[in-house]
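Limitations

Structures in this collection are predictions, not experimental determinations, and the ligand pose is part of the prediction. Treat each record accordingly. The example that follows, with iron/sulfur cluster as the small molecule, is included so readers can see exactly what is and is not provided: the inputs are given verbatim, and the output is the predicted complex.
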Amino acid sequence: MPTDIQNNGAEDEALALYVHWPFCLSRCPYCDFNAHVRDTIDQTRWHDALLTELSYWAKQTPGRTLTSIFFGGGTPSLMDPATTGAVINSAANHWEFADDIEITLEANPTSIEAAKFADLRAAGVNRVSIGVQALDDEALKFLGRGHDRDQALTALNLAEKIFPRFSFDLIYARPQQTADSWASELREALSFAGDHLSLYQLTIEKGTPFFTEERAGAFTLPEEDNAAALFDITQEICDQHGLPAYEISNHAQPGSECRHNLTYWEGGDYIGTGPGGHGRLTIDNTVYATEQIPGPENWLEEVETSGHATRQRTAIDAEGRVEEIFMMGLRLSNGLSREIFWAQTGMELEDALEPRRLRPLLTENYLVLDSKGIRTTAEGRLRLNAILAALLT
Ligand SMILES: C[S@@+](CC[C@H](N)C(=O)[O-])C[C@H]1O[C@@H](n2cnc3c(N)ncnc32)[C@H](O)[C@@H]1O
Ligand code: SF4
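Predicted complex:
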């Protein structure tokens, strides 16, 4: 029988809420998120089901304080803003809101969605994260996006006026992208940026059209050395502009980090509601991993029948918890602090290194361990995926 982890009091702590909206106008060929295209969406049914599942979660987490809500997708900017507002209001009835609660919504920059920004702000959203992906029309076409550069710039301009905080995403290390072209695209992007930017290297995910196309030789990604050079340039330019990386792909002015995502990376508790939502919840001193039914129609029917669509709820054993706390914490530039490791696992860092073969990574200078905690070096960050994979072997 697995030993359930004794979590040091997370039940009294902050709680984050993730809400998944699974629909998009079209599917991007690189994306393997839980995203679906439908001719029509019954917004009323979805509104009612989201509120129903929220009540289910509220019953399991009484007395907790919400520090963030994140509407992710899919494309949540396609949600009826009245539904977004109803979810926020219902959450406010179920839980206490932290004074500085962060309420983020992921938006695509098409004109249809930008037109909803004012209504989304009025509904309570105080931060948007916009999927710009590239500032070059040719690249946007390659990425199969439904918007062009002009629409992206219009959406950014509007977001800056309407929301207290905004961020946007770019995808780099695209085929044929040179260090010079990426550097100038990134510098231009920074001239439009607010306090936060997410910069992802293009990854080829199994089961996507890009996976098949790359195999067939339709395009090639930059070689490893070139990708590493693009990563280095990214760090250098963002540092110069006052938006250093606080996580492997996320940059912010100090103090403007995405609080919701920090909750994941620091091992905090979060609810994952909506199709395919994943959560981590501490209940009666046990940490549970929760997983909702991913198919939109199946999720909807299950919520209408049973009040929720949790397909799995598993107690995480001590070993699994240590592993995931490392996996999350090592993504952060500041790494995993001794306090967080202790609070989440009840262990000292030193006692957890040996069995996970992390010691050699310290001597090889990929990781540093000191009085604050454990973190990757610049060399280690370039090999983060290999380091995380080593943890699992
Ligand atoms: C849930 S998705 C996007 C939300 C929104 N629908 C959009 O497309 O803007 C979050 C982000 O992940 C990034 N992303 C998704 N798949 C990726 C891939 N295969 N490689 C790199 N970045 C990816 C994109 O930058 C995207 O904006
Ligand atoms: S990248 Fe965004 S818009 Fe494109 S399919 Fe994925 S979730 Fe939908």
